[in-house]
Amino acid sequence: MTSPPPRSSGGRVPPALVTDGVIAAIFFAIPLALIIMLDLDLEGWFIVVALAALGVLIVEHEIVAPPRRGRRMLLKAQESYARAEADAGVTSADAARIPTGDAHGAQVLKRLRWYEGRKRETGEVLADVGRMRWIDWHDPALSEAAAKLSDDVSGLSAINDAVRNAATLLTRAPGWEDAWENECGPLREDLDIFRELCQEVGDEAPAAPIADSELGWARACGARLTALRAQLASGALAPGAALDELDAMAAEIRARADALVRRALAAEALPGEEAGLAHYREYIGTWKLPDDDDRYEYSGTWQGDETGVSPTAGEDGERAAVSYNPAATIRLHDYSPGIRAAGIRWQGLATASQYSSPIERILDAYLESRGTGKK
Questions:
Q1: I need a labelling partner for 57 at 20 to 30 A (CA). Which of 7, 110, 200, 273 fits?
Q2: Looking at the record's lineage, which domain of life comes first (predicted)?
């Protein structure tokens, strides 16, 4: 997790700054030479102004902006770290409330310990970056280290939110309803994408009947999420069991999306043609998470089903967007803070585990494969 300690330039000018300075100087020197040596007409003055403007842009973007961007990133990281430090006591108290026998709670605690073990080192790196001078920010290595540090510190703050949600939901403490709705966020977002996938499949005449039944299942799945909340409220379902239900539902959404795409591509293909389906199979076969570089992120918003029965629907029946915090979920997804420390690995599309992965990737693979099959 921890970023490598940055190194000061020690008074040396970074090569990148020298290169940018030379290029900018050329764009200023040429117009100056033209003004001195030539009697410029209107077209000549236009060239002079254009070259000078390019020089100004280079100075701004390549010389002035990097330190400004770096300092802005550093300030954000410092604020996140200070917030994480201020919340440390509350987080420890929340962690103590998490039932140790619950698999979901244990996974969150494992991620928390991973971050706590690296907190001091992260603080030291943050202090080192804070001592960097203006000229140091032109070193690409420092910019990379600062970006990595920003991610590390954001994770420190985010894991505190996940711990709080775990303690609140697993003990049904006041506010558990909000924690539960946040847990449902990734599934509801996937259901939005699933409905979009059904609509895309339905646009292709041979595959239209396939999509209709799946849309009905998506509505039933959304209703199931609402029913689970009612069971939690009545005490008929334990929080850990409710999270297990989310595990199973997430796996089923992935499996149904995958099966729908395969059936649709097969139905859409001309006799003897399998290019689209073959392309899809090859792409999905490379889906190895969380170590995949081609990961997708949850956006943090969902809109509900097309019936308009969502409590967030507006007066005109339009579906209003609902926001949630993906970084604070108990269950894992591709960008959960400390995901690799959890020790839970992707085992396949239909595998039920504490893991959600955006099925937007399946939708994109379908659209690309459909185009491949029509070439």
A1: 7
A2: Bacteria
User: Is 345 a residue whose pLDDT tops 80?
Assistant: no
> What residue type is assigned to position 214 of the chain?
E
C-alpha distances (whole Å) from 242 to each of 138, 246, 247, 314 are 51, 7, 9, 29
Sign of the CA dihedral with 242 first, then 245, 249, and 251 last: positive
Distance, in Å, from the CA atom of 136 to the CA atom of 144, rounded to the nearest integer, reads: 12
How far from 131 is each of 40, 66, 137, 145, CA to CA, in Å?
A: 49, 16, 11, 14
User: What pTM does this model have?
Assistant: 0.77
Torsion angle (degrees, nearest 10) of CA 136, 130, 115, 361: -50
Residues 6+ away with beta carbon under 8 Å from 37:
none
Instruction: Give pLDDT tens digits for 129-148.
Output: 777 776 666 677 777 777 77
pLDDT of residue 283: 82
End-to-end CA distance of the chain: give it in Å, rounded: 44
Strands 332-333 and 355-356: parallel
